[in-house]
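Board notes (copied after class):
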Amino acid sequence: MSLGELTQTKGYKVFMGYVYGWGATVVMVGALFKIQHYPGASVMLIVGLMTEAVIFFLSAFEPPHEQVDWSLVYPELAGIDKDMDSINVEDKKAAVKSKKSALEKFDAMIENAEITPELFEKLGHGLKNLNTTTEKLKDVSDATAATNNYVANFEMASEKVNSFAEAYGASAQKLNVQAEKLASAYERSAMSVGNSGDELSATYTKLIASMNKELETSAGSGKSYNEQLNIMNKNLMALNSVYEMQLEGTNKQFEAAKKLSTGLDEIMANMKQSAEDTKRYRDEIGRLSSNLAAMNTIYGNMLAAMNFKQN
């Protein structure tokens, strides 16, 4: 079977119908991907154009449409083509005449309207100004988008400042509680040291009284003087040991109180530094707000100037 006979078969015609339908679908989908900038748009466009090329290649083998002479079946149709040709010629002449008259009317209208080259030059300048204004509007739209991002970042910074202030307040409250606890502990330590000193003083007083009694007793009884003196020495040694232990405890409490005071000084210094940083940050936020207001004023002036040019 030759290629010409194959293209005349019903199966080939049905196949070409499917090719036209499915191929047009692929071409339209590829164009849609490219217009909407979907992912893979370039690949889909290549597939669509290749499909369209294949369709055109296959359509070249289709035989031309047969012009049937219906005058053989309907004799009254004989000669209608000649009449149509004569009608078409007359219509063409009338169309040419109408075109000429329309051009003449247009020329006359231009002459009456006094359209000069200066008017066309002004029109060109107006179009250039319109193009410049459009580009400036694009820049203003970009600046507006940047300003919106700036405002969003500014709001986020304000929220961070509020969070920082809340956290700072909570930390300050906790530090106050801890400072009160440390102060009460320091006061208790001081009271304990004072009580220990009072007890030690009372003990020394009792010791002196006891020594006086022992001396008086030793004056009347020389026999037991050495024994009483030994007992007194032992008591004195024990008392010195107790005093040394108490003095060591007092020194430890004093060192702890000194460390506590140093820690409180560092805490207060850190709190003061945090307050200064917060104040500096607040000043920067105020300066940032001023710059934003100035920038909005500049954009407003630009828009007003552009609107004035357009008017």
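Comment from the instructor: The chain has a mean pLDDT of 72. Helices lie at 3-8, 10-36, 41-59, 80-113, 117-220, 225-310.
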